[in-house]
Inverse folding.
């Protein structure tokens, strides 16, 4: 924390007043990055396609973010390190459910906030394992092959009809790839 405060040009006391532990600081940074990815997604696709399916938007944002983390030199190791801390995992899951709830605004799905939070919590657990497997077995499994089931599980647990989940996930992944081709993260 001392190194972070020094790099930011603030006192350690000021930093620790707002973020008691480095896990909380990481969680806040992650939440901001996820929101930035979401804003870029909305800006890019709203000008091209009008209103998007909220599930496709959610998968697209998550795919773009996770893929950029997975391909970063230190992204996956930082991600894996941070998810070892319960407070960081909890904050990550909360940020993810807040993103999903913002995507589902003005839909009937948004009414069941508890179901959405549980879907995100379980989905994040699968995502942690998929990212860990990807980091140690690069080349053995493709990123998409490992991460697709976690998106499908989240949508299923959130109550999406099972006959459309595969299509929403495939469309979201393609939208995430399109976003990655347009922006550098």
């Amino acid at each position: 924390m001392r190194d972070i405060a020094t790099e930011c040009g603030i006192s350690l006391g000021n930093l620790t007043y707002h973020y008691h532990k480095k896990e909380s600081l990481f969680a806040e940074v992650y939440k901001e990055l996820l929101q930035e990815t979401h804003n870029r997604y909305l800006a890019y696709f709203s000008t091209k396609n009008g209103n998007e399916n909220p599930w496709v938007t959610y998968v697209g944002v998550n795919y773009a973010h996770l893929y950029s983390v997975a391909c970063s030199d230190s992204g996956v190791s930082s991600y894996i390190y941070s998810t070892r801390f319960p407070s960081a995992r909890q904050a990550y899951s909360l940020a993810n459910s807040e993103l999903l709830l913002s995507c589902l605004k003005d839909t009937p799905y948004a009414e069941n906030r508890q179901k959405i939070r549980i879907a995100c919590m379980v989905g994040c657990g699968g995502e942690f394992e998929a990212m860990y497997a990807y980091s140690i077995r690069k080349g053995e499994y493709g990123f998409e092959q490992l991460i697709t089931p976690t998106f499908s599980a989240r949508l299923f647990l959130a109550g999406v009809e099972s006959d459309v989940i595969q299509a929403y996930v495939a469309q979201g992944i393609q939208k995430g790839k399109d976003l990655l081709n347009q922006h550098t993260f």
